[in-house]
Amino acid sequence: MKKIMLGLMAIFMLCMMTATALAASAEKIQKERSEIDALSSKTLQNLYSKVPSAENVINSCYGYATLSNTGIKLGIFGDAHGRGLAINNETGERIYMRMNEIGVGLGLGVKEYDLIFVIGTESAWKSFISGDIKFASSAEASATDGKTGDSIEGASIAANGIWVYQMTKKGLALDASIKGAKIYPDKKLNKTETKPEAE
User: Fold this and answer.
1) How far apart are CA 20 and CA 31, in angstroms?
2) pLDDT digits over 157-187, tens only?
């Protein structure tokens, strides 16, 4: 009887430890989501202060995404990594995203910047949130963007149906180049429901 009780107590303790670990993991995920939500809002307000017309663009487009990045250059090699949020204005869908970018160029130091993507169509949205989007240089994208041919003040064409604003500490970059960037959904942060709770 004593052995049975000890066994049951061990199982109970194991269940409690597992539940505690899961709760801590869920709390960590929620904290990271909240940080990204705040970063996204701050990034948009910064953009609107520099390019007032961008607010109407963001509010009326099919979807948009914000990514906050840190770029590091050591010698001729560099990379950037970031995190952010994509929001579908049509459906309300929210997808947390990650970014990796590897580039080659001369320089040394750390460069922080924000990218704000304007997504014009459903197909562009699906490509963006699936991680299948192939970003070209501005000139290449302009030559291949036969769908709309539209331009957006202060933004560069990043791919068919997608434009991008790049904000640095100095302000708006006039020619954003994100060729070689890989943007993909964050599996950990998108595991469970990501929509905000109703108030």
Assistant:
1) 16
2) 888 899 999 888 788 876 666 767 789 999 9
What is residue 146's three-state secondary structure?
A: coil
Please report where in the chains the tokens 């998108």 appear, as a residue. 190
- Whether 32 is covered by a domain: the verdict is no
More confident residue, 56 or 71: 56
User: Average pLDDT in the 72-101 region?
Assistant: 82
CA–CA distance, 166 with 67 (Å, rounded to integer): 10
User: What is the average per-residue pLDDT within 28-53?
Assistant: 94
Amino acid 190 reads N
Residue 120 lies inside a defined structural domain of this protein: yes
Identity at 80, one-letter amino acid code: A
**Report field, pTM of the whole predicted structure over 0.90:** no
Give the three-class secondary structure for 6: helix
Report yes or no: 119 and 61 within 8 Å, Cβ to Cβ. yes
In three-state secondary structure terms, 134 is: coil
Overall domain count for the chain = 1
Whether residue 26 is contained in a domain is answered as no
Q: What is the residue-wise DSSP string for 87-120? A: EETTT--EEEEEEEEEEEEEEEEEEEEEEEEEE-
Mean pLDDT lowest among 7-11, 68-72, 107-111, 125-129: 107-111
Q: Which domain holds residue 163?
A: 44-185
- 20 assigned to some structural domain: no
Residues 66, 37: Cα–Cα separation, whole Å: 10
pLDDT of residue 49: 94
